[in-house]
Amino acid sequence: DGGITQSPKYLFRKEGQNVTLSCEQNLNHDAMYWYRQDPGQGLRLIYYSQIVNDFQKGDIAEGYSVSREKKESFPLTVTSAQKNPTAFYLCASWGPSLGEDYGYTFGSGTRLTVV
Amino acid sequence: RKEVEQDPGPFNVPEGATVAFNCTYSNSASQSFFWYRQDCRKEPKLLMSVYSSGNEDGRFTAQLNRASQYISLLIRDSKLSDSATYLCAVNTSPGGYNKLIFGAGTRLAVHP
Fold first, then answer.
1. Is there a contact between A108 and B43 (Cβ–Cβ < 8 Å)?
2. Which residue on chain A is closest to B43 by alpha carbon?
3. How confident is the model over B30-51, as a mean pLDDT?
């Protein structure tokens, strides 16, 4: 079955450490996105990419970096510059999502905690 | 003002009730609109797109009012399994790209 795979499901980061969250899709979608969700809040856009080797900053890009070397993969690095990284991170891609309707398909998310 | 706003709830309703959620958006150039359902500690899943003419899928009806810049979701005959957070999302499509802005979500709790 096609879908988006995020790993790991849970991640613990020490102060000052960079960590990379994986996102892989086999939906053949061009556009991919990273969002962050804090408790009781909506999703906020970190970075997005419409095609390979191209990406744009979202609303809260500071302290994060991404790459898009392959269509299937859009990893997110949370750097030590991100002062409050504890959150639920969601990767999404844009394409046929519900029958013929276009929308986002999300991965199951990564919960990042700073220890 | 937030780009997309929702009543956070919670809405506590008995089984069988009808419940309606509203969502307002600020960008009048927004192109498309969606309702997502999110269960506790899970990823959001697309519930339905919102068409200009309004659309219905079983017990769920979505409406769009461009003049007043809001979308709505009506759930009839609520089931216990409808308990979740409902997120509205607006596609601002900057430069032809698709980019969804989400509301903070409305929590629904259906009780026996």
1. yes
2. A108
3. 92
Cis peptide before A8 (omega within 30 of 0): yes
- Cα gap B100→A30, rounded to integer Å: 15
N-term to C-term CA, chain A: 36
Contact B28, B20 (CB under 8 A): no
CA distance A4 to B82: 24
- Strand order through the sheet with B4-6: B4-6, B19-25, B70-75, B60-65, B55-57
Chain-chain contact of B98 with A98 (C-beta, under 8 angstroms)? no
Q: Which pLDDT tens digit goes with each residue over A15-65?
A: 889 999 999 999 999 999 999 999 878 899 999 999 999 999 999 999 999
Residue A103 has pLDDT above 90, yes or no: no
CA dihedral B52, B88, B98, A73 (to 10 degrees): -140
Partner B contacted by A25 (CB < 8 A)? no
